[in-house]
Predict the structure.
Amino acid sequence: MKNLIKILTIAISLFFALLFSYAAMSKATGFKNFRDQLGQSPGLEGYGEPLAYGIIALQTFTVVLFCYRPLRLWGLWITFGMLTVFAGYIGGILLYSKNPPCTCIGLFEKMSWKGNLILNIGLMITALVGIISMRTGRDQNKKNEKDASFSE
């Protein structure tokens, strides 16, 4: 069980590291388009450029966190937070906006807003599973260390 938890945590971290690497690279290479679409999104008018830089920087920073085992839990929490904000924004768009422009690039470019919301919720659950499995693994390690100290 201990190995399964460890493998699950590594797999989820690797998945998000690859996803955010791809997302940050596609947004950076199509920066002008990404910035302009963000600036046209409801509620974000006038904030396209700082948001574009901020999203790319946050995704890149999160990838770096995933590369270092002691920082992976932070990466998972930041991922969960980002996805929660994105899902909340998309939910608001679906409730209050008529024809919003898509700010998706690359793999998700053809996805509808509703499809994007479902994807974000699925990714939020995946990040939460990673957080729980990482915490479970850490708790098991502490318990094993405690048990080992009593047996000596």
Remarks:
- Residues 2-135 form one domain.
- The chain has a mean pLDDT of 85.
- The chain has one domain: 2-135.
